[in-house]
Amino acid sequence: MSDSEKELHQKLSDAVVNMDEEEAARLSNQVVDEGYDAYEAIDKGLAHGMERAGVLFEEEEYFIPELLMCSDAMYAGLDILRPHIKTGEAKEKFKIVIGVIEGDTHDIGKNLVKIMLEASGFIVYDLGRDIPPATFVDKALEYEAHFIAISTLMTTTMSGMGAVINILSERGVRDKFKVLVGGGPISQSFADKIGADGYSRNAAEAVRLTERLCTEITANR
């Protein structure tokens, strides 16, 4: 990757943190015009900026209004870059059901993960936000999914993730799905505690984790 491309990624990240929609759009158009990789620009630019904004929110330097303006800047860039993503050619089309757990309406992170998974060749069924645990199971069975991906940004709703896994076990279908969890308050230790198959801190890591688990699924057939 050239220095000029890295510099462009940094500027995209800064535009998101600075809540500058016009700059994010201008820089995204520059990525397209100069023939740089759109996926990399989202990952190392826009998503990176949103992660930085999330840290500022956790440190109480930013609050909900600032976070929303950061997300507006991110989406201004995403709208331009998304049509230029080179879709991954997965050997097999693995299916993923994704959503935000019941009680939580924060979906910026979930939306980023969805976009990057689709860009990597996965079929993604987006349930939306504030989704009851049983609905994750019902929809995963309906769509014959391989993965259930659940996110939350609130500590008060984390227990719903464990509830999804409990329902899978109660219905005797736990082995049919890989359950992935993520979001601000989630950790690897929490994922281990509830029996999830994987945890990721951000969208790019979620894609790598999912691809790794696909290899396991294929190998165990």
- CATH topology of the largest domain: the name is Rossmann fold
Major sheet attributes: 5 strands, parallel
Shape descriptor reads globular
Give the total of beta strands: 5
Strand order of the largest sheet: 2-1-3-4-5
Low-confidence stretches: none
How far is it from the N-terminal to the C-terminal residue, by CA? 38 Å
Please write the CATH class name of the largest domain.
Alpha Beta
Q: What portion of the residues fall into strands of 2 or more residues? A: 5-15%
**pLDDT averaged residue by residue:** 92
Helix content: 55-70%
Under the CATH scheme, which architecture of the largest domain would be assigned?
3-Layer(aba) Sandwich
Structural category: alpha/beta
Classify the oligomer: single chain
**Rounded Rg:** 18 Å
Tell me the series of helices and strands, N- to C-terminal. HHHHEHEHEHEHEH
**The CATH homologous superfamily of the largest domain:** Cobalamin-binding domain
Overview of the molecule:
- With 221 residues, the chain is of the alpha/beta class.
- The protein has 2 domains: 3-84, Methyltransferase, Methionine Synthase (B12-binding Domains), Chain A, domain 1 (Orthogonal Bundle); 95-219, Rossmann fold, CATH 3.40.50.280.
- The chain contains 9 helices and 5 strands.
- It has helices at residues 3-17, 21-33, 38-58, 64-81, 108-119, 133-142, 159-170, 188-194, 203-219, and strands at 95-101, 123-131, 147-151, 178-182, 198-200.
- It has a 5-stranded parallel beta sheet with strand order 2-1-3-4-5, with helices on both faces.
- α8 links the parallel β4 (178-182) and β5.
- α1 packs antiparallel against α2 (21-33) and α1 packs parallel to α3.
- The chain starts with a helix and ends with a helix.
